[in-house]
């Protein structure tokens, strides 16, 4: 199980914490819409490849993902 976080490279990031309602899967690059906004500690599932990730919010408002 990898311990490293993958940083979200999506240029659509608004910089406002909690404003993002989608994420790009670090494994397959598919865009995944979410019902609720991304936030620190949230577990998300890629609807395309099935990988699960733990979300980590950074101080600058970006998000990182760790595979579960």
UniProtKB/TrEMBL annotation:
Amino acid composition bias (Acidic residues), ranges on this chain: 1-12
Compositionally biased spans, kind Basic and acidic residues: 13-22
Region Disordered: start-end pairs: 1-22
Protein's recorded name: Uncharacterized protein
């Amino acid at each position: 199980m990898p311990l490293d976080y993958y940083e979200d490279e999506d240029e659509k990031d608004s910089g406002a914490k909690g404003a993002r309602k989608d994420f790009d899967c670090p494994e397959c690059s598919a865009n995944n819409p979410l019902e609720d906004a991304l936030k620190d500690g949230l577990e998300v599932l890629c609807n395309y490849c099935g990988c699960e990730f733990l979300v980590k919010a950074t101080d600058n408002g970006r998000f990182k993902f760790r595979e579960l």
